[in-house]
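4.2 Preliminary Data

To establish feasibility before requesting continued support, the project team ran the inverse folding procedure on a target of 226 residues. The structure was first converted into the token representation described in Section 3, and no sequence information of any kind was made available to the design step. The complete token record follows.
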């Protein structure tokens, strides 16, 4: 998989890919991340990427030309499955979308800033608009990092067996069960006995029950209740 991220602040997006699981995924050649600084596609001398909005009103709007230049340049080199625009008014991101995106070959992610991009960018280039929740961030970069993390960890080979994505919360619309590790008794706070019993069918069924109970208590909406 190849992800091209278009941004006015590429620095925000360097460290997430330089550590831990995402770093290893890149090293293993399972994903390529390419950051593109929108200012490199500006032709005027002031390196201006935004301007006042037509009709008046507070807030700057990202201009279409640098974005067109960047996207058109990328598309001339390879085909893209999606051009995703990160914006608080996009479709709410969830595990289902993460799963679908993890199967794609090449995607472009455009990070919005200020009042957003000129509507013509959305009309003519963007194929999918994503928000990560009902709150406003200063820009789409942190949201893009969230989306990249969630999809890259789903690419086969990125996670080892010990961290399999199949048992994550949400993967089956249930929250994950509680987990414990050594010591089995910490200051009198004990691990549920079943987990140290060695009875694996029973442990599995306990975990399923816990998942269900947790979901019912914390996220009844996932069960179609409430
Ligand atoms: Cl994708 N961008 C911004 N600026 N704010 C957000 C968001 C995206 N998702 C939630 N809030």
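Position-by-position output of the design step:
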């Amino acid at each position: 998989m190849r992800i091209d991220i278009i941004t006015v602040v590429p620095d925000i997006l360097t460290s997430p890919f330089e550590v831990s699981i995402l770093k290893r995924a890149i090293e293993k050649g399972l994903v390529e991340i390419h950051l593109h600084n929108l200012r490199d596609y500006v032709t005027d001398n002031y390196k201006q990427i935004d301007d006042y909005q037509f009709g008046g009103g507070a807030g700057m709007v990202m201009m279409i030309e640098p974005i067109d230049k960047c996207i058109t340049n990328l598309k001339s080199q390879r085909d893209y499955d999606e051009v995703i625009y990160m914006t608080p008014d996009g479709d709410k991101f969830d595990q289902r979308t993460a799963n679908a995106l993890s199967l794609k070959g090449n995607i472009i992610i455009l990070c919005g800033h200020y009042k957003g991009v000129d509507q013509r960018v959305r009309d003519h280039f963007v194929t999918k608009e994503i928000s990560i929740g009902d709150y406003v961030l200063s820009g789409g970069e942190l949201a893009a990092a969230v989306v990249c993390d969630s999809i890259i960890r789903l690419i086969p080979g990125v996670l080892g067996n010990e961290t399999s994505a199949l048992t994550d919360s949400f993967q089956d619309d249930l929250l994950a069960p509680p987990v414990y590790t050594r010591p089995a008794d910490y200051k009198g706070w004990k691990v549920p006995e079943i987990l140290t019993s060695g009875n694996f069918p029973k442990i599995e069924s306990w975990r399923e029950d816990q998942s269900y109970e947790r979901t019912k208590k914390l996220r009844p909406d996932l069960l179609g209740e409430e």
